[in-house]
Amino acid sequence: MATMESLSHTQETTEEFGERLLGVINASGLSMMLSIGHRTGLWDAMSQMDPATSTEIAARTGLQERYVREWLGAMVTGKVVDYDAATQQYWLPAHRAALLTRAGAPSNMAATMQWISVLGSVEDEVVERFQQGGGVHYCRFKRFHEVMAEESNQSTVGGLFEHILPLVDGLQARLEEGIEVLDVGCGRGRAMIALAERFPHSQFTGYDFSEEAIEAATREAAAKNLANIRFAVRDAAKIDDHRQYDLITAFDAIHDQARPDLVLANIARALLDGGVFLMQDITASSYVEKNIDHPLGPFLYTISTMHCMTVSLASGGMGLGTAWGEELACKMLKNAGFSLPEVKRLPHDIMNSYYIVRLAE
To answer: How far is CA 230 from the centre of its chain?
Structure first.
């Protein structure tokens, strides 16, 4: 029988664990400050500046110097910004700016740091759910769709044409000729809008149950005068489209559905014979022991507890969570009427797997 000691990967001391916890505290503080640097434009401004004082940086960004100086203190002690005490000047080295600025997309890690404060905004409600059960509804998450749209720009739109579409043989040629495309859980529609611009002969539809997200997507598509795209407020568990689409996509949208089993079955029903379902979802195993060495393991279970699992439970759903995993995903796809999927990964993307799925014969 395995003992508690043998289950531990390291025989660390209390002092060593304490040092790890200090690192967690510092990293937690830095994540919030990195997010603020993104939202205020400080990273973008500093990446274009020579070494400068806090007063000069504040003037460049139009921000309050006292806040800028305190923020810089966190960045200097966090070894993100460099500092010369003699001249009281700060600067952002280019190799760090590459991962912190909008110009560095899709590698802008500062934008991703926004999730920490978004999730923290519902901590009290999640604690109540620990005690009482149920879940926290999407509408309780401040700035969710705004931050998700930025994340979509990086994780999906940024690599859509160069990396993602080429995963499916012949797909870009079919899009150029003209096919019917549906995106399930489209959010603000950034991926579909990008596709509609690139492939004017194809028709694009986006479904999401959030009125806020669909309104934003519709406005953006209208501003671009796109006539080959439409968005609609629809619950993916209730869509009844039948053999209508050549391509259906779901970008990081299936695992937090209330009833992913029904959603996948509806997608199978809506797909034309010979069509393709392209599902982007989180790279993980369905078994926690296989996720121990995952580079984002703690983050995946955190974002699941604080969002993906709880929003599903809030609607009386299955609450599969972020790390529902490849094993369960493949099983559920088969149960929905699909053949065994091809599961592909991109060398630069540690977060996502891409399931290429067709109807079972």
So the answer is: 23
Written as one letter, the residue type at 50 is: D
pLDDT of 154: 82
pLDDT in tens, 230-268: 999 999 999 888 989 999 999 999 999 999 999 999 999
- The Cα 217–Cα 151 span in angstroms is 15
E-assigned strand segments in the chain = 82-84, 89-91, 180-184, 203-208, 229-233, 245-251, 271-282, 342-344, 352-357
Whose tokens are 């596709």? That residue is 195
Measured in whole angstroms, the distance separating CA 142 from the mean position of its chain's CA atoms is: 16
**Cα 191 to Cα 227: distance, rounded to the nearest angstrom:** 16
CA distance 323 to 281: 9
Grouping H, G, I as helix, E, B as strand and the rest as coil, residue 350 is coil
Beta strand residue intervals within 244-316, DSSP E: 245-251, 271-282
**Tokens for 19?**
């040092």
Partners of 233 in the β-ladder: 208
The domains of the chain, with CATH numbers, are: 11-102 (1.10.10.10), 119-357 (3.40.50.150)
Report pTM.
Answer: 0.90
H/E element, 190? helix 190-198
Q: Is the C-alpha dihedral spanning 330, 331, 334, 336 positive or negative? A: negative
Among 27, 112, 29, which Cα is nearest to 303's?
Answer: 112
